[in-house]
């Protein structure tokens, strides 16, 4: 009998849901934008992903929730932290990964991943929103542009200005002051990105640099930060098509492992387990012998780019489509 | 979980939560002197032998206000709290203070106390920190005699061999009973919140020791031990945190994440009760032996000794307790721990023993972030556990 598992990642600005089948293949995934942590948004994400997969909740053998709001997810059988799930999901999306840098809406993490694609060491940003998605929202507000423009500006910036990366509120004050002094928005944006990269480097230093390194979380879509961070690290970062779903995918795969264990499909030895971990990685092949370097015909897009893009929808859109107005 | 008899536990908890209120009440009741000592090596027996109440001065839970201008922000929270307590009148109940440790930050706090409340005598005699030199024992014995003179001066009472021997006996008995709780916890037959165990130790630091021992005995008499340890929880060792106890809320938070604390080397834990004073021979020389032996039993980052080290002790004690990982609690800016920690981490890392560092502060607890950190740590240990169950 075919069975599926679901992972739900309720973050601070988005709700993500992923369904995988018994082989660990992604069947469907959804990302729902929300203003604040919201049970409604997570409900939308779950319903949408079930609809995309043409499944009902009865078809889901096990659900694991993760993320900042993991305890708010209705119907979850168990919770795992976003650190464990991002490591697992990143290993699935980028087999052989050794370092995961996850930058979400309001926190950032560096995770050293072991041979089995699971957490070895980790470090979280301390209590301030510095270097997170919220930090870039603050930058947009201060420069009065949207996020895409902030990224383009950063890539065009040339001068390195002194901007604190310690605190989002202080940074906003500094940006306004730099504007008043006549600094170019492009240089300001570039400098803020550079300072976030430096701060992230500090986080990485706590767990140790490693290759290959992959970025997950919504901020991984910020091309400027990826560029500055790669420069700061002195190494390439693996860019995922769908960095936002790494946590939910990890949760779905852990749910799959657990359900498989319940069915008695346990592995017999560590080596088989390792191979299975690679297989479990969303059905992607393992990079046997990969030392993390790309090039010479070696790439990390094992599915030949056939993965379906993950639709990102606004919570309000989905609610409208579902019938009654959210108001 | 076991329960500690609530009626017996209540006075211990009250004393642990408000040592100054306890000392004030004791003073009114007995008319005796209250002598404050500072952690971590003052032998309370010396004060007890004069008939005064020895109280290890605790970090206060009140927000640091006046103390902010007395010590820099980069002093540990315990010393900043001491300065604040001195400035806000919280140390009024004490008749004198004694100190034998010489952590730079603690000396800074002692200076502030002397400056802010100059009418309270503060006696400092530096117990040597080089523990295994040929001259170490003789030097500590001299220092014990020096401190004896200071204590006698403050209390106006001569400490005799007989009075000190009697005090040593009651403190040894108190430590023995406390160790029974810790031994039961290690075997898994006692499962009480770590914060409750902390209450037992902390109250012993501030209460009349005979009264405390009677309550401990009553608790033990009324205790139903479990037949076996809870299997589903992850067994952890708590390490670090000198001088001041970690907040009970932090300990509760740890235990909410499917964790059972099976052992520790905290000052408000095993470190404090690890060693008895030899009961035979010259009692003053016995106090020196106690000081030297403690660092062998539970090595400390503030002492230097070539033949023992904290990390080896930690590895051995984990094998003994079956702890699956170590959580190091580090008071922010505690220099001795900060400087030693890389060595601890390296040793545990080399042995593949999971280790997690949590930094603590006087004000606030970033509860959600700490919870996520602990849960991830527990998930990692569980995974390691299930990997080990796989046949080779
Ligand atoms: S040993 Fe650490 S906690 Fe104790 S006084 Fe010194 S710095 Fe503070």
UniProtKB/TrEMBL annotation, chain A:
InterPro entries: ATPase_BadF, ATPase_NBD, CoA_E_activase_dom, Dehydratase_Activator_Redct
Keyword Iron-sulfur: yes
ATPase BadF/BadG/BcrA/BcrD type domain mapped to chain residues: 7-255
Cofactor(s) this protein cannot do without: [4Fe-4S] cluster
Key words, A-Z: Iron, Iron-sulfur, Metal-binding
UniProt keyword GTP-binding present: no
Native source organism of the sequence: Citricoccus zhacaiensis
Cross-referenced Pfam families: BcrAD_BadFG
Domain of life: Bacteria
Coiled-coil segments: none
Protein name, as recorded: 2-hydroxyglutaryl-CoA dehydratase
Automatic annotation (TrEMBL), chain B:
Keyword entries, A-Z: Iron, Iron-sulfur, Metal-binding
Gene3D superfamilies: 1.20.1270.370, 3.40.50.11890, 3.40.50.11900
Record bears the keyword Iron-sulfur: yes
Keyword Metal-binding assigned: yes
Tree of life domain: Bacteria
Family statement: Belongs to the FldB/FldC dehydratase alpha/beta subunit family.
Protein name per its UniProtKB record: 2-hydroxyglutaryl-CoA dehydratase
Organism per entry: Citricoccus zhacaiensis
